[in-house]
Design brief:
The chain is mainly alpha-helical. The chain contains 6 helices and 2 strands, in the order ββαααααα. Strands 1-2 form a two-stranded antiparallel ribbon. A hairpin with a 2-residue loop joins strand 1 and strand 2. Helix 1 crosses helix 3, helix 2 packs antiparallel against helix 3 and helix 3 packs antiparallel against helix 4. It is globular, with a radius of gyration of 20 Å.
Length: 202
């Protein structure tokens, strides 16, 4: 991609900093806009529950992966025509991913701490953080598996060293499908769960 914005050259790795800024913006948006809006929307004055916020975050992740797939397809097309896309086009998906993280991670920590028995609050809060670490390992395993399988089917595969020769957009569509299945499974189990009354009243 074209990494220049006006006269500045933006290192691709620095986009993570933009995501951190977006998380901060989402936290402010949650506290100043979304939470007050939900209090107005619900006649009882209630806010979104932890499970509802986690569900919203998981849905946003589906949207973010679909955005990434569409953008990658457009990027490959632009490379073929010798007119690389600007790196600025990646910023919207980072904003959506930041929103997903804001909804899921904060609510997940609140859920584990609030729903756990008093004697297990610290342990289950640690388990909430452990799921993030396990997710990173699983992500690496999925990338390795798909890269290997697609390389066997048709060289150089979806994720070659030179991404212009691959189909990273197909990989993102796979992640979109996985995220969708994950969302459906989550909705099913979340609909069966009943929050502790003390959390609802709080």
């Amino acid at each position: 991609m074209n990494t220049k914005i006006v006269s500045l050259s933006i290192p691709p790795a620095s986009l993570y900093s933009f995501e951190v800024i977006c998380v901060t913006l989402w936290v402010l948006l949650m506290n100043k806009v979304i939470v007050p809006a939900t209090r107005t929307f619900f006649t009882s004055g209630a806010e979104l529950t932890q499970l509802q916020r986690i569900g919203i975050g998981r849905f946003l992740m589906i949207f973010a992966m679909a955005m990434a797939a569409l953008l990658e397809a457009k990027r490959l097309e632009s490379v073929q025509h010798g007119n690389p896309l600007s790196i600025v086009w990646q910023l919207p998906q980072y904003f959506v991913i930041a929103g997903a993280e804001c909804f899921v991670i904060i609510a997940q920590l609140e859920f584990f701490h609030g729903q756990a028995p008093d004697s297990m609050k610290s342990m289950l809060t640690a388990f909430a953080l452990l799921t993030t670490a396990l997710g990173n390992y699983l992500s690496s395993a999925i990338i390795t598996l798909i890269a290997g399988l697609t390389r066997e089917w048709q060289s150089p595969g979806w994720i070659p060293d030179d991404l212009n020769e691959g189909h990273l957009d197909y990989f993102y569509w796979c992640l979109t499908a996985i995220s969708f299945v994950n969302f459906i499974v989550y909705v099913y189990f979340a609909s069966k769960y009943r929050l502790k009354k003390i959390v609802i009243d709080g």
